[in-house]
Amino acid sequence: MKRIxxxxxxxxxxxxxxxxxxxxxxxxxITSKGPILxxxxxxxxxxxxxxxxxxxxxxxxxxxxxxxxLQDPASLLTPIGGFLRKSSLDELPQLWCILKGDMSFVGPRxxxxxxxxxxxxxxxxxxxKLLPGLTGWAQVNGRDELPIPKKVALDTEYISKxxxxxxxxxxxxxxxxxxxxxGVSH
Length: 186
Known about the structure:
This is Sugar transferase. One of its GO terms (molecular function) is transferase activity. It comes from Thiomicrorhabdus lithotrophica. Keywords: Membrane, Transferase, Transmembrane, Transmembrane helix. This protein is mainly α and 186 residues long. β1 and β2 form a beta hairpin. It is globular and about 45 Å long.
């Protein structure tokens, strides 16, 4: 059921969002040097790595670490990078990962390949058995502002509450948070 929901919603979303996706792609290309997409190594279900695309919001020589670990992340943003991140438009290419089956609409956000502390805690709690998501219970309860143990606690809570209607509730909360730009620190 969850896979069918993901497929149907990702196809509908892709069709509805094709124009904004193209517009963002053009603006990324004309406002900074480098590729339109940034592909990062992410940890998926059963801790298998997959390539996750985002619209490139940072300069091409930015280190591949979590943004909160960068000394001055604002100095590394492209001219439209801040807007892309705050509006979450940089996440639109991840519809491709949902279509492919690497991700779901709802699940724990995929860790970067080098976030060893997050990966280890999730593995201990069984969170690694879930498909990562475009959004998740931790994202609607703090997004970028949560410490790793709290994120994993919310991911674990998601496992116990997981259902079709709970996913719909999380998608709704995500929509509201994105509109309010709530919980985005960089």
